[in-house]
Amino acid sequence: MEKTEFEQMRDKALEQLMKGQSLTGKDGVFAPLLQQFLESALESGMNAHLSSEERESGNKRNGKGSKRLKTISGEIILTTPEDRKSSFLPQIVKKCETVLADNLAPQIIGLYSKGMSFRDISDHIQQMYDVEISHSTLSEITERVIPQVKEWQNRPLESLYTIVWMDAMHYKVKDGGRVVPRAVYNVLGVNRHGYKELIGMYISESEGSNFWLSVLTDLKSRGVKDILIACTDNLTGFSEAIISVFPGSEIQTCVIHQIRNSLKYVASKDQKAFMQDLKNVYQAPTQEKAELELEKLDENWGKKYPIVIKSWYSNWHKLSTYFAYDEHIRKLIYTTNAVEGFHRQVRKITKTKGAFPNDMALLKLIYLAVENISKKWTSPLLNWAITSQQLDIKFGDRMKMDL
């Protein structure tokens, strides 16, 4: 008894599976199915196009044509309906389309989000599916992400963020034939429930307190009413910008940044001994003890390195905020390691790029990297139950714990 078409397809599918062959690749069993689906869709589209009004105007079917179409299931030859006026504009397979790239869009965007170049993506698709996709098609597909980027940048935010780290990454972008620097400002926050979220991503020509002020103003316009603790580097004017927008915030500048900047002005032969004395300052159990150790540091090194010691004294009110908390919160806020760790993950994706063709190309890739990275942010920070109680005691009604 002759097998039905379905039985033949089923047997072929089982055979390909047993051999480890792809059902969707070149010569896969699903290629005929896709062809039938597309041809049926084109016929339905033509029927809808040839409405009563269209027929009364003199338009009608005018035979059939054919076109070669490359798909994830290999190359197929479609039979396409035509009309006398050539006014039928199919959407599922457009008139000049020779590659059905839409069904590859998730794979293409996924590869692009891992930092692969268009050339590498095209080669990968060619090897996997025997489909050639031009750079212009790849560009068009990845540019579909742009509305998502803009929507994400302008989404509403929660009213309170308990801890916020702010720092910038630096890149090169082509602008009118020149390669120019760009600073990408990132704001990583922890909400009242202990979950991390990148609440802001902005781009500017360079890093400065004036632009950070515009960043903070934008956060406020998107719904942020309060930030309990803001962790920053020691950029001049940064703390003042934060306080001007969120006057109740406590500022903690990064101790590690301060140490790095200090060591720039300490002779290499003195650095080991200097650091040993400096550790007694920032690793002290209390602020009072830390201040005593700072005085000892001054006694030992003040005459030789007066500018370094003066910097610690002048910045002390911003460097010492973390002493008001126990070790769980101290580890979170005394450095900007949280946002720098996030930056390291982003750079793994962007490191293959030289200069980006434009600002949006840069933001687009970072946004896709953020989507992948944030998939792991599914649990509150470690020991958040203890941390949140301490924040509640410290900040009272501003914390507003849900009990």
TrEMBL record:
GO BP: DNA transposition
Family note: Belongs to the transposase mutator family.
Species: Dyadobacter helix
Pfam families per record: Transposase_mut
Protein task: Required for the transposition of the insertion element.
PANTHER family named in the record: MUTATOR FAMILY TRANSPOSASE, TRANSPOSASE FOR INSERTION SEQUENCE ELEMENT IS1081
GO terms of molecular function: DNA binding; transposase activity
UniProt entry tagged with the keyword DNA-binding: yes
Keywords in alphabetical order: DNA recombination, DNA-binding, Transposable element, Transposition
Record bears the keyword Heme: no
Xref: PROSITE patterns: TRANSPOSASE_MUTATOR (PS01007)
Protein name: Mutator family transposase
